[in-house]
C-alpha cells in the first residue's frame, strides 16, 4: 500500500465526521476511512494511479471567493454550509429548485422526488432566491432551474421571466423533457420568457434503457425536445446518468447521436451514478471517471481517447473531465489533451466556468457574437493563417493546433475555414463525478463552485446538499 494523502470524510452510517487515508494499491487508488462506531469503509476512486496523478498535474486554477460569507464556522465542514468562511470558491452555477415534484418515479433519483405540490416554493420565495444569487455571486450570474421536474409548474415561464428581470445573465432549465415535447404552447412561453439552454436528461438512444429506469419509452420524446429547441434557436445539453448494468454500453452511441444533432446539441454531460437519495440496493452500478473515459475511447473506436479529456473547469482535478471536439465528415476531431500540461491563466475558475457555460451551451440565435470553439480555444489574429501557425489553449498550455489534431484531419484550410467549422460543428463532452457518502472528501467540497440556493437564502455545495447516509437520510435537502 502506497499512502497518497489523508482525507477528512463522513461515515456512511451516521454521517459523522471521520478521518481516512487515500492510497494506491496494485496501481489503483482507494479511500479508506474508519468510524469508531461503525467500522471501516473502502471505496475505489480510480483504476490507474498514473492517470490520477496526471489529472492533478494538468490542473491549475486561480480562485475567487464568494462576495460574502452567509454563515459562521461552528461545527466545521460540512455542517456550516451557507457559504461559511472556510469555503474557498465563488459560485459558478447556482441551482434554484422550484419544485420537489416529478412525474417520473425513476429508480435512480438523488433528490428522491415525490408529488407533493404543497412543498413548492411560492413566487416570492423564488424571487428571494434569485436576488440572493445576484447579491452573493460574482458577475456574470448563472443559474440552473431544477427540482424535481420544473415543468410540473404551470407558472415556469413567469419564473424564468422573473429571473431575467432580477438580472440573472444565464438561465438553463434542467428537465426530463416530457411536457416540452407534448405541449408546444408551454414550450413557446418558456422560450419567449428568455430561457438560454435546456439541460435534458438523456440516458440513451434506445427505449429499453429508459424502460429500465422509468418504465416508460422516452427516446422519441427526447428527440422531439431537440427538434423544438432547434426551431427556437435554444441550445441543448444532453445529460446521461451512467451506471454499470444500465447504460454504460451506450455512451458511444449517445455521443454519436449528439454529434448528429449539432449545432442544436451543444454538449454531452455524463454523470456517473452517485448513491444519494433513491437508488437500487447495493452499489454495483458505480463507475469511476476513468472507467467512463475508457468506454468512450472504446465505443468511439479511438476517435476520442482518454488523453483528450482534461480536468474540467471545476475547482478540483478529480471533480470531472472535459473534451472539446469539432466534427467533420470523418468524425470527431478533439482539441484538448492532458499531455500539454496546465493552463496558466489570470482569470479565476468560477469566471472561466461561467463564460464557458454561457459561450458553449447557449443557442445559436441568441449568440450575437457567433462564438465558436475556435473563439474559446484558439489564440490568434483574425486574419487568414495556415493551421500550422495557430495555437490551442484548451485546459493546457499553448501549442500549435497541428500538434493536437489527428494526423488524418481534413482541416487543411486556413483560419476562416476552421472558425466556420467550429462555429457550426463543435461539441463539448464532459463528465462530473459527484460525491456520495462513500467517496466524500472535504477538500473537494470546500472548493466546490456548484451551489444549491436554499429557500432561507443560503448556498450549499451540491454534493453536501444531496448527501445521504446509507439509509437515504439527507444531510441538508429535507432540512432547508
Structure overview:
This protein folds into 2 domains: 56 residues; 297 residues, Alpha-Beta Barrel (TIM Barrel), CATH 3.20.20. The protein has 14 helices and 20 strands. About 7% of the residues have low confidence. Strands 5, 6, 7, 8, 9, 10, 11, 12, 13, 14, 18, 19 and 20 form a 13-stranded mixed beta sheet that branches. The chain has a 4-stranded antiparallel beta sheet with strand order 1-2-3-4. A 3-stranded antiparallel beta sheet has the order 15-16-17. It is globular, with a radius of gyration of 21 Å. Helix content is 27%, strand content 22%. It has 480 residues and is α/β, with parallel strands linked by helices. Helix 3 runs parallel beside helix 5.
What features would you highlight for this structure?
TIM Barrel, alpha/beta, 13-stranded mixed β-sheet, 27% helix, 4-stranded antiparallel β-sheet, 480 residues, 20 strands, 2 domains, globular
Percentage of helical residues?
25-40%
* Tally of individual helices: 14
Second-tier CATH architecture of the largest domain: Alpha-Beta Barrel
Domain tally: 2
Largest sheet, in brief, is: 13 strands, mixed
Rg (C-alpha, Å): 21 Å
Category by helix and strand content: alpha/beta
Amino acid at each position: 500500500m502506497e499512502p497518497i494523502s489523508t482525507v477528512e470524510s463522513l461515515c456512511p452510517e451516521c454521517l459523522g465526521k471521520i478521518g481516512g487515508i487515500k492510497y494506491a494499491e496494485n496501481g489503483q487508488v482507494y479511500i479508506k476511512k474508519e468510524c469508531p462506531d461503525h467500522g471501516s469503509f473502502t471505496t475505489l476512486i480510480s483504476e490507474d494511479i498514473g492517470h490520477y496523478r496526471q489529472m492533478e498535474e494538468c490542473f491549475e486554477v486561480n480562485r475567487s471567493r464568494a462576495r460574502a460569507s452567509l454563515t459562521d464556522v461552528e461545527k466545521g465542514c460540512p455542517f456550516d454550509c451557507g457559504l461559511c468562511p472556510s469555503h474557498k470558491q465563488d459560485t459558478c452555477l447556482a441551482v434554484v429548485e422550484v419544485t420537489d415534484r416529478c412525474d417520473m418515479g425513476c429508480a435512480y433519483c438523488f433528490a428522491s422526488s415525490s408529488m407533493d405540490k404543497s412543498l413548492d416554493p411560492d413566487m416570492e420565495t423564488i424571487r428571494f432566491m434569485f436576488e440572493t444569487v445576484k447579491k452573493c455571486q460574482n458577475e456574470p450570474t448563472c443559474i440552473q432551474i431544477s427540482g424535481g421536474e420544473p415543468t410540473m409548474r404551470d407558472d415556469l415561464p413567469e419564473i424564468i421571466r422573473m429571473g431575467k428581470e432580477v438580472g440573472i445573465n444565464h438561465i438553463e432549465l434542467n428537465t426530463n423533457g416530457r411536457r416540452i415535447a407534448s405541449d408546444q404552447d408551454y414550450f413557446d412561453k418558456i422560450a419567449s420568457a428568455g430561457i438560454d439552454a435546456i439541460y435534458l436528461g438523456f440516458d440513451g438512444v434506445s427505449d429499453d434503457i429508459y424502460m429500465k429506469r422509468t418504465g416508460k419509452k422516452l427516446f422519441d420524446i427526447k428527440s422531439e425536445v431537440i427538434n423544438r429547441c432547434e426551431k427556437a434557436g435554444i441550445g441543448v445539453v444532453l445529460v446521461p446518468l451512467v451506471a454499470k448494468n444500465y447504460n454504460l454500453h451506450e455512451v458511444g452511441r449517445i455521443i454519436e447521436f449528439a454529434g448528429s444533432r449539432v449545432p442544436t446539441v451543444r454538449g454531452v454531460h455524463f454523470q456517473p451514478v452517485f448513491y444519494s437519495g433513491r437508488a437500487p440496493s447495493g452499489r454495483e452500478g458505480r463507475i469511476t471517471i476513468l472507467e467512463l473515459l475508457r468506454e468512450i475511447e472504446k465505443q468511439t473506436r479511438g476517435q476520442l481517447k482518454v488523453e483528450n479529456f482534461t480536468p474540467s473547469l471545476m475547482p478540483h482535478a478529480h471533480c470531472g473531465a472535459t473534451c472539446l471536439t469539432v466534427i467533420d465528415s470523418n468524425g470527431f476531431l478533439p482539441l484538448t489533451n492532458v499531455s500539454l500540461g496546465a493552463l496558466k491563466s489570470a482569470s479565476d475558475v468560477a469566471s472561466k466556468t461561467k463564460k464557458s457555460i454561457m459561450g458553449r451551451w447557449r443557442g445559436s440565435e441568441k449568440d450575437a457574437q457567433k462564438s465558436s470553439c475556435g473563439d474559446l480555444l484558439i489564440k490568434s489574429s483574425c486574419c487568414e493563417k495556415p493551421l500550422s501557425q495557430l495555437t490551442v489553449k484548451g485546459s493546457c498550455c499553448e501549442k500549435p493546433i497541428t500538434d493536437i489534431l489527428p494526423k488524418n484531419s481534413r482541416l487543411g484550410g486556413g483560419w476562416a475555414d476552421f472558425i466556420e467549422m467550429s462555429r457550426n460543428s463543435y461539441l463539448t463532452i464532459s463528465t462530473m463525478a459527484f460525491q456520495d457518502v462513500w467517496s466524500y472528501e472535504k477538500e473537494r467540497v470546500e472548493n466546490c463552485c456548484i451551489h444549491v440556493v436554499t429557500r432561507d437564502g443560503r448556498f450549499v455545495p451540491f454534493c453536501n446538499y444531496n448527501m445521504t447516509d446509507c439509509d437515504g437520510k439527507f444531510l441538508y435537502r429535507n432540512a432547508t
